[in-house]
């Protein structure tokens, strides 16, 4: 009876199948650095035989130049390329079960090359200018510059200006203490948290040092030319001032005349009113004289007149 109970107890264990368990699961998102080796791991245990295979964007993954399947549980990139970015799925399958895990591979890359790199050099100073095209979503942390003389045996080492790490918001930088009439080679690159971008190389020549006598002649020549320009400018300024004063005087005279005109008209109307009153008085007085009756003696006769 005891043996029968033991057999019944172990029957479910013998009939059960070992479930697939991921020992090293995949994260939801991973980052692989451009041009660096990288490995996706998906280790699982379960019933034998246990088969593992990979899918990228819905298509099976096979060995190729940049991918290597290591015991099928690992997908190795040697190295990572930009086109390797995508959604990967690790599928583990037995005769009775199938499970999968997926992850998104993001290719993290250093900055691209800087563009429009130019150098404007004088005798002992050079101004470097550049532009940033795209940072691929990863902020640039610094701009770096190196320079050295070209025609020297052996080639001199690269010099770094101060500060060595230039702010990423800057698009121009000055290099001091250069030698006149010398050819230099300059390299410039950008950096982010994933590394250094490709370098851009530019050659430039500093200006020749000017002889003191020739420099004095140039200054005098420039002085004569500047004197003529200054004289013309002064004449134009005087003429402009005179024109402005004339216009201002005309405006003031016009405003004064405009304000005085109503008063003159008012005084003229008052004079007309006074004259009209006087004429009325004279007319009234004349009428009174005509209406007055008086007697006069003319040749001994009385005459009545109006």
TrEMBL record:
What the entry lists under InterPro entries is as follows: FN3_dom (IPR003961), FN3_sf (IPR036116), Ig-like_dom (IPR007110), Ig-like_dom_sf (IPR036179), Ig-like_fold (IPR013783), Ig_I-set (IPR013098), Ig_sub (IPR003599), Ig_sub2 (IPR003598)
Q: Give a GO cellular-component term.
A: membrane
Keyword Endoplasmic reticulum found: no
Identify one Pfam family in the record. fn3
State the source organism's domain of life.
Answer: Eukaryota
Q: Which Gene3D superfamilies does the entry link to?
A: Immunoglobulins
Q: Tell me which positions the record assigns to the signal sequence.
A: 1-18
The portions of this protein that span the membrane are 230-254
Checking CDD domains in the record gives: FN3, Ig
BP GO terms, sorted? anatomical structure morphogenesis; cell differentiation; cell-cell adhesion
The Ig-like domain covers 12-102
The UniProt entry, under PANTHER family, shows: CONTACTIN, PROTEIN SIDEKICK
- Its recorded name reads Ig-like domain-containing protein
Q: What is the lineage of its organism?
A: Eukaryota, Metazoa, Ecdysozoa, Arthropoda, Myriapoda
């Amino acid at each position: 009876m005891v043996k029968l109970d033991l057999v019944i107890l172990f029957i479910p264990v013998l009939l059960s199948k070992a479930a697939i368990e991921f020992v090293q699961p995949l994260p939801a998102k991973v980052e692989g650095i451009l041009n660096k080796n990288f490995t996706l791991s998906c280790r699982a245990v379960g019933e034998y035989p246990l088969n593992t295979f990979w899918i990228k964007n819905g298509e099976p993954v096979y060995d190729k130049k940049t991918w290597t399947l290591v015991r099928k549980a690992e997908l190795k990139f040697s190295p990572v390329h930009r086109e390797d970015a995508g959604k990967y799925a690790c599928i583990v399958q037995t005769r009775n079960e199938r499970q999968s895990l997926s992850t998104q591979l993001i290719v993290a890359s250093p900055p691209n090359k800087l563009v429009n790199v130019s150098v404007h050099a004088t005798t002992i100073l050079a101004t470097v200018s550049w532009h940033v095209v795209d940072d691929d979503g990863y902020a640039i942390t610094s701009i770096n510059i190196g320079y050295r003389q070209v025609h020297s045996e052996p080639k001199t080492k690269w010099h770094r200006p101060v500060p060595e790490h230039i702010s990423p918001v800057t698009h121009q930088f000055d290099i001091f203490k250069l030698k006149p009439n010398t050819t230099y080679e300059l390299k410039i690159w950008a950096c982010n948290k994933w590394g250094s971008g490709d370098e851009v190389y530019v050659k430039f020549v500093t200006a020749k040092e000017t002889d003191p006598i020739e420099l004095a002649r140039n200054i005098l020549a420039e002085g004569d030319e500047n004197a003529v320009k200054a004289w013309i400018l002064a004449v134009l300024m005087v003429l402009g001032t005179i024109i402005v004063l004339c216009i201002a005087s005309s405006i003031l005279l016009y405003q004064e005349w405009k304000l005085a005109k109503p008063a003159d008209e008012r005084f003229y109307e008052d004079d007309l009113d006074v004259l009209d009153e006087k004429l009325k008085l004279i007319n009234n007085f004349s009428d009174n004289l005509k209406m007055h009756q008086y007697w006069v003696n003319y040749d001994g006769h009385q005459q009545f007149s109006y």
